[in-house]
Amino acid sequence: TAAMAASAAIQGHRQGFDPFGATVLAIVTSVGGGTLRDLLIGATPVFWLTDLSYLATAVPVGLLVFFMAGRLQQGGGRRLRLLLYLDAMGLALFTLVGANAALEIGLSSPSAVVLGCITGIAGGMFRDVLCGLQPSILSRDLYATISIIGGTIYTLSLNYIDLNLSLVLAFFFMLILRWLVIYRTV
């Protein structure tokens, strides 16, 4: 939640949002994928309406990072790289949360992979759309592909190793691969 809120606040600053706009963007980005997941599986009310810790994380992180982003030197892509590295963490974490939620309600492994991908990518897509940008999933960066592969690694590895090791393996696979893509393209 904090990683996605931070990435959104940086993007809000880059787009010239005011603190309120950046905070709204942080909230939408940090809970967007999970909200869509919950709506798809019929889990209502959605998670952040009953557990306010998500908003209690997104709002202060969004505000703090928005103001800190103004202190980062402009040019050279520093803010963009930081945004993308934080977003990579959110992608990996939210993909696994979504896949795990699907498995917990008895969905098949392929359905869990798809739901994990939706959970992982939706918040960033909402962020990009609200900023008037083309979502990167539609054009480049292996974003959804990494989520799908990571979700597949997670669901398949559960057949051979325990839950925690499966989570760690899939998380680091997605994180490292996404960071390599960012490093090579930005």
List keywords for this structure.
8 helices, 186 residues, globular, single chain, mainly alpha
Task: Explain what the structure shows.
77% of the residues lie in helices and 0% in strands. 43% of the residues are buried. With 186 residues, it is an all-alpha fold. It has helices at 2-14, 19-41, 47-50, 53-69, 78-104, 109-130, 143-157, 163-185. The chain contains eight helices and no strands. Helix 2 (19-41) packs antiparallel against helix 6 and helix 5 (78-104) runs antiparallel to helix 8.
Condensed summary:
By secondary structure, the protein is an all-alpha fold.
What is the rounded distance between the termini? 24 Å
Task: Tell me the number of helical segments per DSSP (H or I, 4 or more residues long).
Answer: 8
Order of helices and strands: HHHHHHHH
- The gyration radius over C-alpha positions equals 16 Å
Classify the beta-strand content into a percent band.
under 5%
Helix content: over 70%
- Give the rounded overall mean pLDDT: 92
Uncertain residue ranges:
none
Shape annotation: globular
Number of strands: 0
Please outline the major beta sheet.
none
Structural class by helix and strand composition: mainly alpha
